[in-house]
Write a structure and sequence with these properties.
globular; 4-stranded antiparallel sheet
Length: 296
């Protein structure tokens, strides 16, 4: 079975090696970096992408070298965090989510870009209330965990709700905030398993959440007070996605791709040919699933 936490840490380590000494992956400090890909130098790469449901279909990228934003379908990009004098200066951004009840409210997590943190920067959860134009620190990692926050997923209960997971606390590690990440409390009762990979809030169903890990999938309809383990899941689940309200729910794991047509109450194994590192769907074509291979 795959071990997500190990893969996550190994991926971060490989990213650090790939980015060399933090000044452009092999470029000397005196060299002038050349933008070649619209959002940085050739050494930069994307960790997370969201497309907001606004009039511009705003695209926001969390990259190894900061956050970039586009309002013209990716033709041009503006760096809004991670640069000199900006929030998150000199740190890596790696997890984006936005609140469907207020799409202008975004959350992102940070990690070491190189071996040290620049003076004035802090690792933790950051938030934006204007669609990614400006950012503020909500919660420092050090204030809630001895490690790092595993994920920060916007909730479906109110416009200021966000969930985080603290892996060192196992089944008690799911936390929820109702004030955009400034204060957190435990999200209901203990989970049926620890080591969460992520959380999928079901659109337009407040309190209905799906949690997944190496132990499978668990569902709650009351914001985490009570959990039910989904049966017939073989092995680990690494990714879940849905195109929108009342749409199918897809889950990718050791056995292949599962699909649910009843809002996550049950899942059926529908594809076993390949294992994908990421899945996504479109609200315009809910029966079409896009998968990303680990090496292609």
């Amino acid at each position: 079975m795959k071990n997500f936490r190990l893969l996550f840490l190994l991926s971060l380590a490989l990213l650090l090696v790939a980015c060399d000494n933090g000044n452009g992956g092999g470029q000397t400090a005196s060299a002038t970096p050349v933008n070649v890909n619209g959002f940085g130098t050739a050494q930069n790469h994307v960790h997370s992408l969201v497309i907001l449901p606004d009039a511009h279909q705003t695209m926001v990228l969390a990259t190894h070298y900061g956050i970039f934003r586009s309002q013209d379908h990716g033709a041009t990009w503006q760096k809004t965090a991670g640069g000199p004098g900006q929030q998150m200066q000199g740190v890596m951004t790696y997890y984006l989510s936005y609140n469907p009840l207020n799409p202008q409210r975004l959350y992102v997590l940070t990690f070491y870009q190189t071996g040290t943190i620049p003076r004035g920067s802090t690792l933790g959860l950051y938030t934006s209330g204007d669609g990614g134009k400006t950012w503020q620190l909500s919660t420092a990692d050090a204030s809630v965990t001895s490690s790092t926050i595993t994920f920060a997923q916007a909730g479906n209960g109110n416009p200021s709700e966000v969930y985080i997971y603290l892996s060192n606390l196992g089944p008690l590690g799911l936390r929820v905030s109702m004030d955009n990440g400034q204060h957190f409390t435990q999200a209901g009762g203990p989970l049926p398993f620890g080591g969460l990979h992520d959380l999928l809030p079901i659109p337009d169903q407040p309190g209905h959440l799906l949690a997944y890990s190496d132990s499978g999938i668990a569902s709650t309809s009351d914001g985490g007070s009570h959990w039910k383990v989904i049966s017939n899941i073989q092995g680990s689940i690494f990714e879940m996605t849905t195109p929108g309200p009342n749409g199918p729910i897809y889950a990718e794991g050791d056995a292949g791709i599962y699909a649910s047509q009843d809002g996550g109450q049950s899942f059926s194994l529908v594809y076993t040919q390949h294992s994908y590192s990421s899945l996504t769907t479109s609200p315009e074509q809910p029966q079409v699933v896009y998968g990303k291979l680990g090496l292609g």
